[in-house]
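*** Fold description ***
***
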Amino acid sequence: MLELVKYSPIYKEDILRLDKEYLTGSFKDLNTSDNDIIILALDNNKVVGFLYIIYVCLEADIVSICVDKSSRGKGIAKKLLNYMFDNYDLEACFLEVREDNIPAIGLYKYFNFETISVRKKYYSDNTNALMMKWSS
């Protein structure tokens, strides 16, 4: 059964593994500040996904959202975003997404994010990034 919980250091290695496998491996460490919020998706106490946001003054920046490949297609990313919207008072939320990540873009559009700009050749393989924003 899927459970959404706030970050605990006991799951640090699981997050770092997912980041390394599916994202950029940019989390060399997880030294979080008071404004950093990480929500974990646990399935039988195993981390199958996470949402990492920076939350300041009624705004959130989505740093990362990741779901293990074996758990994709089960609505986990949608549940993580719903958790954020249900539990944090937001006026705006921002993110960057690869322009070729069609499933993620579809998810963000489902939540009424809009593309506000394009960062040309943003990623190391020269893929563009879409800057997206959600407003209340």
